[in-house]
Amino acid sequence: MLDLTDVILTEGKSVHRDVELEMDRLSYRFGTFKIAEASPVSLTVENCGDRRLSLTGDVTVKIWIPCARCLKPVASELKIQFETETDLDKKDYIDGYNLDVDRLVHDEALLVWPERVLCREDCKGLCNTCGQNLNDGSCDCERTDLDSRMAKILDIFSNFKEV
Question: Is the pTM of this model over 0.85?
Answer without folding.
Answer: no
